[in-house]
Automatic annotation (TrEMBL):
<dbReference type="InterPro" id="IPR013473">
    <property type="entry name" value="BrxL"/>
</dbReference>
<keyword id="KW-0378">Hydrolase</keyword>
<dbReference type="Pfam" id="PF20442">
    <property type="entry name" value="BrxL_N"/>
</dbReference>
<dbReference type="InterPro" id="IPR027417">
    <property type="entry name" value="P-loop_NTPase"/>
</dbReference>
<dbReference type="InterPro" id="IPR008269">
    <property type="entry name" value="Lon_proteolytic"/>
</dbReference>
<dbReference type="Pfam" id="PF13337">
    <property type="entry name" value="BrxL_ATPase"/>
</dbReference>
<dbReference type="InterPro" id="IPR020568">
    <property type="entry name" value="Ribosomal_Su5_D2-typ_SF"/>
</dbReference>
<dbReference type="InterPro" id="IPR014061">
    <property type="entry name" value="BrxL-like"/>
</dbReference>
<dbReference type="GO" id="GO:0004176">
    <property type="term" value="F:ATP-dependent peptidase activity"/>
</dbReference>
<dbReference type="InterPro" id="IPR014721">
    <property type="entry name" value="Ribsml_uS5_D2-typ_fold_subgr"/>
</dbReference>
<dbReference type="Pfam" id="PF05362">
    <property type="entry name" value="Lon_C"/>
</dbReference>
<feature type="domain" description="Lon proteolytic">
    <location>
        <begin position="523"/>
        <end position="680"/>
    </location>
</feature>
<feature type="domain" description="BREX system Lon protease-like BrxL N-terminal">
    <location>
        <begin position="13"/>
        <end position="143"/>
    </location>
</feature>
<keyword id="KW-0645">Protease</keyword>
<dbReference type="InterPro" id="IPR046838">
    <property type="entry name" value="BrxL_N"/>
</dbReference>
<dbReference type="GO" id="GO:0004252">
    <property type="term" value="F:serine-type endopeptidase activity"/>
</dbReference>
<dbReference type="GO" id="GO:0006508">
    <property type="term" value="P:proteolysis"/>
</dbReference>
Length: 681
């Protein structure tokens, strides 16, 4: 393996806490144990970049895993060794149950097919997770020949065990100190390498999705859904990387196992683990009718009631599943929650409790080249850091820096805040470190997108209360409000129903003698200076005439249009982007004026709106003679609304009923009326 700069930086910052991830895969294929078990062993003997030490350590790990893991067919040999030597050490899942007949606990060791192994109450109380499905541990298995001779005797016993996880208090301090040596981009890549993924060549959206998968590990009571294509490793992180996560495979989920067993008061999975992941979620069902309601109550408040007692837990709930079709087809035939079980898929109240819908279609399939051969953090060190981060919050970082738009409800804000807090913990584990505006905005945009995706599905089901999905935010008191979309709802150049950035507008040119009508997007930015600068090279003459008329109208009617702002003390840069054969941008003066005002006022134009019209130097609105064909073109382009001069009203009597039902047509009297109707309320 060739060391790169990130490897050298990691080796310097995390001496003794890194491991080569290709070694991990080598061993995990050899032995029937999860990745974090292998890394636990490698972390003891191979946490170095010295090749000689690595080779020596590999020999020790190979020998110990060979001796302590139980291969199929070797069960009786291991039991025999325990009988002959009195004790043997193995690595296995250890799960316990209470035997009421003898008032004692019994352990199951599945690799040895032993179900009645004695264990002390003290060990069970120290490691209660063995009562909720079990966990991997180094088990010292004893054998007492005298008990074997008794009738119904149970000669095997657990004489000692060591959980496969780190338990040092200062790991978070080490992580925080080392983080300061990395840039944010380097740290994101290093985190991905630490979970076995190679970020080189990966798209930013794929990296973001991988990081979102880690948020439930650092954020308490975080509810996430990920549905996407098969083979993208949706359950890998929850099964292989951390001992603090538990994977529930498709099938019956009992209320007793998930929450609390009323028979003996034993707390369930959400109390024992940081993350409970439902794999193949479409097959999940509860054994009791009120199971989903208990789950909904827990997802809302982090509490559940069984009997008289109200129990609080902080386990995060993750649901992963597969689409049978691609995401575009899924949206055509239904909504993105369709793969969930029937009792959940159309329940908007259940959806409202989901903080994050992770876009699983953005994650690449797990091919050999996506796994890293470089250094990453040892899994037990990383998972211990992640679990300690759960006790922190980053919401203070948002105070007086981020302001959300009016479309967000209380649950929306709660979900977005949780995602932002989790992402900031991942990229900045030191809670006292300064978060840059760039990093903060990255987390804010992701948090809004994954929550908006939930809201869009609720709107698709038809609930009127969820109709406003235009999620926006402002960074800083004087910042411009920006809107966040969910990319799967529209093509990159399509007309979505969310507002564009301030200064941007969709416009239809009515064309002329030598040119057909065409769709354009006009983008205007403002800064210190004066005048209007057109960035298109060469400058289309017809568009130049339209924007000059718009500029003069802005100067002449500034008080009516932009209030006390002085447009003459600002320089505007304008760029026209064409989406049809039309290139001149002729007769787009009204849209140009609205774009100039939008940039100056820092207010966005309504989503899904196309503007038509030309304004003269004197402020008169010129007539449009092909309003019907423009309306038909607007429908074809996917617009929701069309803003036309009021003089076009009679022409539209000829518009077909089918077209009229697909488009909201509005009229304006003059430039000020057009501006008021175009801007977001």
């Amino acid at each position: 393996m060739q060391l790169d700069d990130l490897d050298r930086k990691a080796a310097d910052a995390f001496d003794g806490y890194i491991v080569r991830k290709d070694l991990v895969r080598q061993f995990s294929r050899q032995f029937p144990v999860p990745t974090y078990v292998v890394e636990f062993m490698l972390g003891r003997y191979c946490a170095t970049i010295d090749e000689n030490e690595i080779q020596e350590g590999l020999g020790i790990v190979q020998r110990q895993l060979s001796e302590r893991t139980v291969r199929a067919g070797n069960e009786e040999l291991i039991k025999s060794t325990a009988k002959e030597k009195g004790q043997v050490r193995i690595i296995d899942i250890i799960a316990a149950r209470l035997d009421a007949k003898t008032d004692s606990y019994l352990v199951e060791l599945p690799s040895l097919k032993l179900r009645d192994v004695r264990v002390s109450s003290e060990l069970v109380n120290q490691h209660q997770r063995m009562l909720t499905g079990g966990f991997y541990a180094e088990v010292t298995l004893g054998y007492d020949a005298s008990i074997a001779l008794e009738k119904g005797g149970r000669p095997f016993s657990v004489d000692g065990l060591r959980a496969i996880q780190l338990s040092q208090r200062d790991v978070l301090d080490k992580l925080s100190q080392a983080r300061a040596k990395f840039t944010t981009a380097e740290w994101k890549d290093f985190l991905l390498r630490s979970i076995g993924i190679e970020p080189a060549g990966m798209l930013d959206r794929a990296k973001d999705a991988m990081l979102l998968r880690m948020v439930p590990f650092v954020e308490r009571n975080y509810n996430m859904v990920e549905i996407g294509p098969r083979g993208t490793g949706k359950s890998h992180l929850f099964q292989q990387v951390s001992p603090y996560a538990h994977l529930v495979s498709g099938g019956k989920a009992t209320v007793a196992r998930m929450f609390v067993n009323n028979a003996n008061g034993q707390r369930g999975l959400v109390c024992q683990y940081d993350v409970v992941c439902f794999d193949e979620v479409s097959g999940i069902s509860f054994d009791q009718k009120d199971g989903v309601n208990i789950m909904k109550g827990y997802m809302e408040s982090g509490e559940f009631s069984r009997g008289k007692e109200s129990i609080r837990a902080d386990g995060s709930i993750v649901m992963v599943g597969n689409f049978d079709v691609d995401v575009e087809h899924q949206q055509r035939i239904g909504h993105l929650f369709q793969p969930l079980p029937p009792e959940m898929r159309d329940d908007t109240a259940f959806m409202d409790r989901i903080h994050c819908y992770l876009p699983g279609w953005d994650v690449p399939k797990l091919k050999p080249d996506i796994f890293t051969n470089h250094f990453g953090l040892v899994s037990d060190f990383l998972s211990e850091c992640l679990t300690q981060l759960r006790s922190q919050s980053r919401l203070a970082t948002l105070q007086n820096r981020v302001f959300f738009g009016g479309a967000l409800s209380g649950r929306d804000i709660n979900g977005v805040n949780k995602t932002i807090s989790g992402l900031l913990k991942l990229i900045s584990p030191n809670q006292d470190a300064e978060i840059s505006d760039e990093d903060l905005e990255w987390a804010v945009r992701l948090g809004l997108e994954v929550r908006r995706r939930v809201k869009e599905q609720q709107k698709r089901i038809g609930a009127a209360e969820f109709r406003n999905t235009h999620f926006g935010y402002t960074i800083g008191a004087e910042g411009v409000e920006k809107f966040v979309s969910t990319p799967e709802l529209q093509g990159q150049n399509g007309i979505g129903d969310e507002p564009l950035e301030a200064g941007q507008i969709w416009v239809l040119s009515p064309g002329g003698q030598d040119e057909h009508p065409g769709l354009f997007r006009l983008e205007v930015t403002e800064g210190p200076g004066s005048g209007v600068r057109i960035l298109n090279k060469p400058v289309p003459q017809a568009f130049q005439e339209s924007i000059r008329c718009a500029e003069q109208n802005l100067y002449a009617r500034a008080l009516q249009l932009v209030g006390d702002r002085d447009p003459r003390s600002h320089e505007f840069s304008a760029q026209l982007r064409g989406f049809d054969s039309a290139k001149t941008g002729a007769k787009t003066g009204v849209a140009s004026l609205i774009a100039l005002c939008s940039a100056l006022l820092r207010k966005s134009v309504r989503g899904g709106l196309i503007v038509v019209g030309e304004v003269t130097l004197g402020g008169t609105i010129e007539p449009i003679h092909n309003a019907v064909s423009l309306a038909e073109l607007a429908v074809e382009k996917g617009a929701k609304s069309l803003l036309l001069p009021v003089a076009c009203r009679r022409q539209l009597f000829d518009l077909s009923d089918d077209m009229a039902t697909k488009l909201d047509i509005e009229f304006y009297q003059d430039a000020k009326d057009a501006l008021l109707k175009a801007l977001v309320d």
